[in-house]
Amino acid sequence: MDTIISAIAQDDFLIEIVTSTGITGMFDVKPYLSGGAFKELEDKSYFRIVRPAHHGIMRPHEQDFSSDTIVWDIQHV
Predict the structure, then answer these.
(1) What is the predicted pLDDT for the residue at 54?
(2) Edge-first strand listing for the sheet containing 14-19
(3) What's the DSSP call for residue 12?
(4) Which domains does the chain have, with CATH numbers?
(5) CA–CA gap between residue 29 and residue 47 (Å, rounded)
(6) pLDDT for the residue numbered 55
(7) CA angle (32, 75, 8) in 5-degree steps
(8) Which end of the chain, C or N, has fewer beta carbons within 10 A?
(9) pTM for this structure?
C-alpha cells in the first residue's frame, strides 16, 4: 500500500498528491461531496485542512480517504 507523503489542497476541490512510490497527481474530491459524511468538505476553508496520515489523508472530523482510493482515482481519471 502506498503512503501519502504530501497532500496539498487546491482550488475546485482538488488535492495535489505525492505518494511514497512516486505517484503524483490531483485527487478530485467533487464526486464524494454528495455523500453525507463528506458534506462538510463543501466549506472551502475546512476543505483546505488536510494532511497525510495512516496510509491516506485525513481531516479533523474524520473525512478520511485511503491511499488505495486516492491512487486508483488518480490513475483512472
Answers:
(1) 77
(2) 4-9, 14-19, 24-28
(3) T
(4) 4-75 (3.30.2020.10)
(5) 10
(6) 86
(7) 60
(8) C
(9) 0.92
| Sequence-ordered list of residues with C-beta below 8 angstroms from that of 35, at least 6 positions apart, any chain | none
CA distance 60 to 64: 9
Grid coordinates in use for 4? 501519502
DSSP secondary structure string for all residues of 19-52: ETTS-EEEEE-GGGTTSGGGGGGGSHHHHT--EE
Report the pLDDT value the prediction gives residue 73, as an integer from 0 to 100: 96
**Three-class DSSP category at 66:** strand
**Cell numbers for 28:** 478530485
**From the centroid of its chain, how far is CA 38?**
11
For 4-53, what is each residue's pLDDT tens digit?
999 999 999 999 999 999 999 999 999 999 878 899 999 999 999 999 98
